[in-house]
Amino acid sequence: MALNRIEKLIESYLAGDTSIAEENELKVYFSSSDIAEHLKQYQPLFSYFSKAKEEPYSREISLPTKSKINLKIWSIAASIVVLLGIGVFMYVQNSKSDDFVACSQDDNPELVLQQTQKALALVSEHLNTGIKSVGYINEYKESKNRIFKNNQTNNE
Question: Which of 15, 12, 52, 50 is nearest to 29 (CA)?
Fold first, then answer.
């Protein structure tokens, strides 16, 4: 009866269907001296695990360490990039605001017209940016509706 069970467990083990308790049962069986003759071919497989546990691992494991110098260099580089980005942003913003001149009713009508056109062009530019964003949202909604309609028809 026990031999029958061991044979079934070996078949399950080779198929990859055994639990840890069943594998331990196989290890115990093959570590004993009473092994059936036709099953001795599996003994090296299961005795290997027992021998491997007892074998010490003597090689030293070295973990890579982070270089403090490398970290400092990256920190300085990131700071420079951020500062350059802020500087360019401020420069661009200041150059845009310098284009406009405050006008009154007594000023030259052509100057007032030019300033008005500049202001309207700036408003138009910002509105177009907003409209593009809305276009992306509409495209997202259409794609989402297509996906969910396909999923609903597949689930039904």
Answer: 50
